[in-house]
Structure prediction request, 151 residues.
Amino acid sequence: MVSMFGSTSSDTVTIDAPNAIVWDVYSDIEHWPEWTASVTTAHLDPSGPLALGSRASIKQSRLPRVTWTVSHIEPGRSWQWANHTVGAHTNADHRLTPLDSGHTRVDLSIDQRGVLGRPIGWLVKRTTRRYLRMEAEGLRARSESMTDTAS
Prediction:
């Protein structure tokens, strides 16, 4: 969706794995390049578990390196991180919802705002949507393979 205020892209995936496994895979930022082709390098500072104030440096092909700062976290459930530059404010949301069936629904979104953020969001909209889909599908494959290994 593109509005006069910003550009938002989102995706949702249902994963045949318990919430705890999906959280362990998804919140382990430094291993993202192993399961999603949308990320070429990822580094978390400080290293260790994702936490409030953690800074994640993510490089994706065709896009500049972005450093995200975790602004909100509910371990096992969700985190939001943000990147702010002159004229552009980008927020990304990652939400896990355990389902009764032992599955997990994951909702991910990116919202780009600001004088420069809105047009940049519009220009990279197709790439952003494709990368969100790659992230969702990669997370599903890795989490479900971890469930198979745990069985």
